[in-house]
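tool=predict chain=A
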Amino acid sequence: MTKTNEKIHVLADESLGGIKREYVEVDRKAEGGEKIVIVDAILSFGKYHNGDIFDLATKRSASVRTACGKCIYDEEYNVLGPTNIVHIDGERYEMVDRKAEVDEKIVIIAPDDDLAVDGDIGKIATVTEVFSEEDIDASPMGWVKRSEYRVLVPAESSEEEPQPSDPIDVIANLATRVAELERENKRIKEDLGWNEMGPGRIAELRNADSDIRHDIAALEERVDNDYEESDAWAGSVNEKMSRLQDEIDTLHKDNRRHGEELEALKYAAKETDGKVAHLESDSDMRLFTAEEVIALLNEMRERQ
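tool=predict ok
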């Protein structure tokens, strides 16, 4: 089950034009685009500390990578979930999705493409008139569609919540809570076999866990590099195959041309009744057959 902590962070929300918004810590794995806060920097090696806040870029199997390039394990952070509480001019307001009334304040959260101008996101206005379709007229913006705004309702401050008035009750409650925690601590030690292992064994296990996590991170980096090398190798193979195919096509063309030449020679030999050429010298005349002419042509090609 997802656990929600009471700790609240007030951060500028760029999706609301930089308005300060309350975020609550949630103990779960983060998703892309969320904010996280470091709560147990056990594997930071000084690169980040408890309380540091980061924007998440990507999620991995057991860790996240922040927008600034840091690798943080899931056990080290809590997710910062946005609430509907915003801070405007030192006051806390809740953004409520309902029809506005005259004199109420609104905040623009989704400017309409046909009406909005640059900078409308996060603008605060006061309702001066409400139309039948729940669109409004607001000062100083003018006409605002129902889909563009949320009503700003003053939120009760946590300082106004009732506090225990009797110190004796407070002390008694604290004592009861301490006793419960001591019993829980004893039970956990027994379950872990603390008495058998001792505190040193816990430290060894923690160090071993740290080594395993670093090995996992290194393997993930190697996998990424292997993918890149595989893509490069595949491109090289495709290029070589294309070049070999071109050479094969050229050989086929040469083979076809040679066949055509051979057929032409055979045809010429047939037309001359087996005598395709003769050479004349000073002393005699010699006639060559078609087979002899082909042999001479092949020898000339080899010499070339």
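The chain has four helices and 15 strands. The longest helix spans residues 199-271.
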